[in-house]
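REVIEWER CHECKLIST
Item 1: Sequence provided? yes
Item 2: Single chain? yes
Item 3: Sequence as submitted:
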Amino acid sequence: MPSALPDGEPVPENGALPAQALDGAAGRPLGFYLHVPYCASRCGYCDFNTYTASELRGTGGVLASRDNYADTLAQEIRLAREVLGEDPRPARTVFFGGGTPTLLPAADLVRMLAAVRDEFGLAPDAEVTTEANPESVDPAYLETLREGGFNRISFGMQSARPHVLRVLDRNHTPGRPEACVAEARAAGFEHVNLDLIYGTPGESDADWRASLEAAIGAGPDHVSAYALIVEEGTGLARRVRRGEIPMTDDDEHADRYLIADELLAKAGFDWYEVSNWATSEPARCLHNELYWRGADWWGAGPGAHSHVGGVRWWNVKHPGAYAAALAEGRSPGAGRELLGEEDRRVEHILLELRLREGCPLDLLLPAGREAAARHRAAGLLDPEAYEKGAAVLTLRGRLLADAVVRDLVD
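Item 4: Structure as written out by the authors:
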């Protein structure tokens, strides 16, 4: 979750939504994102809304403490129940992100999940995921999560090469993420993801292949691979600006992506979103698919974003301010926007084009249809899917996804 918040209109103190936001809600799945903003240390590339203990010291007192964070977040879940009123939908997905959710005791994560279950219920086949730092869990921790209702876990591996991890300021031991996969399987987790980053300065093709091979060999059923983006204001950006480390260029990123797709496909992983591969449909991350398909989700926690029925809002960033608002009986919302029909059309194209199923051609305006025809002729869109009425990226199209989508939204 990026640290910068957009502008927007004020959120009512009680968090109330416009009446039309719940029109047709019964036909849309509902997910929950629970943000845990704490980290043991700050990674050099990270631009997310996270805080270390030293960054919070003296800036929020007990309100910003992670000791009582589970109770604070449960207050927002109860607020969500009040705002959504008689909405009968159980939670289809619950995703704990951060930050490092597993810096909290496992019992705290289970209590936060219980708050969602108590207020909304969980669908019989609900997907419940937490992100985890490999160094912040052990077998007993994982067993507590599994017994508490978690069935999916995502470990931040990033790389198998120590020199790459050092550039990223990642402090886990090489080999630990792979061990975590085995421990999660032993605890009974049905689905396990490993997150990887490619394009780190100083990383070679051989380094990247080694990381992929290590991840595949660990036995997850899902792998995410993201190109490193050097965000302004991060420690990594300052090192690049000082000339300490070089930027990785777009051609190198493309080469690494092709390597990832090749090795993962050979190992039985199919791409289903530009940066995500899974061994089966049940292994796909359903929670992220809610985002990509424009469903409804409530984001609880500092800086978390939500979307219900075309209304998008976001919470105040600082844990102290967030806790203070809830303690005073106010919504922690910092701003919101009501998406018009054109906004929603554009978002559907932007997000669905990244999926293996693509986006319907009938979402495109005349200029976008002309662009789609050109990209089909250029080999960027799949011709068979095109004839069936969908814009679906080819492998070459995935390399140029941002450029293709810019043309299609016109």
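Item 5: Key structural point noted by reviewer: The radius of gyration is 21 Å.
Item 6: Recommendation: ____
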